[in-house]
């Protein structure tokens, strides 16, 4: 199924477009930073992992972040809380993300705004080889940062659900496997409830647990030597990320429990 509107991301953006995009990202990033710092109580575990991945990773290796999806404001508020501010001031450094075409690209003004914010329109249910996924793969091959919600929808139940294989394609078919940083969060659906009138709230508590970076070079190389199909590779990679989500979910639930009750996290034991 093709997009119901013209592709909104220019192949060769003009200087004016790049300037407007930079201003849009900086504005949204600043508002997000201020909202999460002053109007929300945020507890983050392993924030240095994401900071290092964004600012100091090998420039030849792209970054792919993957998170669960609980609210329409997950993006950009989660990165307002966790990403280094310098990323919002540099369009080249800031992430690309995937946004549902039938949700955030419904009006011409919305298409313009989200495209300037480096959001790629995606048709949910249209498969891993739709134009949007190919475009995302192209950005990975250029060493860019891609963020993806592999649940491919807002998960209202917060139960573990099967991740879509698109995330597996972005890794399996990359020229160089991206560095993958998974993370899990809780509380964003209290900042923006998933019920009408969909009014953002202040003073809520959000917890974010950032996982250890994952690399898939060895696995991909091994499966290629075994002549595994691309479908098998996508599934194997997605299953690994699914298992990481399960581990991070339990860790984040404990972090969020401590956050809600005011408990102080225990200090790490000395070896």
UniProtKB/TrEMBL annotation:
Its main location: mitochondrion. Pfam families: Acyltransferase. CDD domains: LPLAT_AGPAT-like. It comes from the Eukaryota. It is a peripheral membrane protein. Keywords: Acyltransferase, Coiled coil, Lipid metabolism, Membrane, Mitochondrion, Mitochondrion inner membrane, Mitochondrion outer membrane, Transferase. This is Tafazzin family protein. It comes from Rotaria socialis. The lineage of its organism: Eukaryota, Metazoa, Spiralia, Gnathifera, Rotifera.
